[in-house]
Amino acid sequence: MNPNIAIEIERRKHLEMMDAFPMIVILQGALAALVLCVTVLNYGLSNQTIIWAGLFVCVISARYIVDRSLRPRIDSHSMHKTHWLTLLTTRSLIGFVWSLGSIWYIQLAPEHNLLSTTIWCTALAFAGTIFHINSISALQVYFWSLILPLVVYFSLGLERLFEAFILVLCGVIYVSLYTRILHNKAIKRIAEEIEKEQLIRQLSEANHSIKALAEQDALTELKNRTYFNQKIEAVWQRSKEKHQDLCVILFDIDHFKPFNDNYGHVSGDKALRKVAKRLKTIDLEAEYSFFARVGGEEFVAVLPNTRLDKAISIAELIRLDIENAAIAHQYSSCADVITISAGVAMSTSEAASSIIEMMEQADKALYLAKEGGRNQVAIAEDFAPKEQPHRVELQAQPS
């Protein structure tokens, strides 16, 4: 068996027994109340009856306290020998208190109470193992703590050796054979549950991985067009509901076709990966913002809850960062390295009343950037101040 599964089985089998404690309290509490009522009605309220009732409450309370304090340790696999001994002791005490009460009840009228007490006491011992079936150790300490004191009393106090022998024989057969079959079934059930959960988790992780791969551009490992088309709808709707600005930056690599034609497609792919690597280092700041590759050399940055001036600054940062990457491009008319042209649009423009119109505005701005000489950022005409050009002028290049 897988060691991890074995560890998890060990954890769960004890947690299940702890979870069964409320049912134990209900059943044994009801039985204890019945026994006390019968005893008081038939023999009156004696000191032994009061002592037994107090002991019963104490051992039930002790088990509750111990279970509650040790549950985190079982959950975290940090149990030590002393903890296990304490846990088993609480199981043993419950069995012993029942055995002690049974002996006291028999002593009130041995001939009259012997048979009935033996029946319900052994029934309690055999039936009680159901709540401890997950652990052979817990089962045995509970069972024998209940049965052995009765056996000793039958042998020494009542001199009923045959009855004592029958109790021991039945107990050995029950504990060593039948309960082990039940225990193995319980462990098998827990193991199957764990394996099913692991399978479901693996399927979920596989589905998540498949979804992630379906949304990822294989070459650049950025989000792909499929992801962009799906996500932009949600981002757009969220921005409208919250009355927030939504900006997009549409940009592509300048003169990428000559780059591919002269350096080769392998070098072109390497260049795209280098550009994507630089993009991944740029903090778009806004929540739900993302980069995506939407064409061969075309990319987009989606910026929810971002003002136009901030989007322009980010676009300029992208432009400078790509240029500073210094990816050689001798066949470009605007620089000797790879550069980009970018167009910025915002959803609050009167001309951008839909996603399509906003993207059209960004595309027009990108066209203006290219017409203006490339390697620059332009904004949609609807946003451009009338007294200023509609594009951001090229900043001075570092020497």
UniProtKB/TrEMBL annotation:
UniProt keyword annotations, A-Z: Membrane, Transmembrane, Transmembrane helix
Cofactor: Mg(2+)
GO MF, any single term: diguanylate cyclase activity
InterPro entries in the cross-refs: Diguanylate_Cyclase (IPR050469), GGDEF_dom (IPR000160), Nucleotide_cyclase (IPR029787), Rev_trsase/Diguanyl_cyclase (IPR043128)
Catalysed reactions listed for this entry: 2 GTP = 3',3'-c-di-GMP + 2 diphosphate
EC number: 2.7.7.65
Stretches assigned to the GGDEF domain: 244-382
Pfam family for this entry, one: GGDEF
PROSITE patterns for this protein: GGDEF
EC top class named in words: transferase
Cross-referenced SMART domains: GGDEF
Sequence intervals crossing the membrane: 20-43, 49-66, 87-108, 114-134, 141-158, 164-182
Protein name: diguanylate cyclase
Lineage of the organism: Bacteria, Pseudomonadati, Pseudomonadota, Gammaproteobacteria, Vibrionales
